Amino acid sequence: QVQLVESGGRLVQAGGSLRLSCVASGRTFSVYRVAWFRQAPGNEREFVAAINWVGGSYYADSVKGRFAISRDNAKNTAYLEMNSLNADDTAVYYCAAGRNNQPVAASSAYDYWGQGTQVTVSS
Hints:
This protein is an all-beta fold. Helix content is 0%, strand content 50%.
């Protein structure tokens, strides 16, 4: 089992920046691919970014160039640096971890999920 706890979400003005953190406990964090998803009210959960065990990263087109995912395996922590935030980025952001061979942007690729952290961008 892997337990994931997100933090860092808050209210921020449009154009601002935030850094979300995801701290993992349990099994060896470094072997897992880690991703961030988000869900806005009335919308389905959507893929934001992912990073694999060797540091390769993947991004949704909507955040490419604005968001950056990273990980520190020594600290069992993954991060999502978010810049140039806009109202469309308002959502609950979830951290997820997985090891299977499903497509990296699919929810089914991840076995463990955090409880989420709220990001609200005011325009």
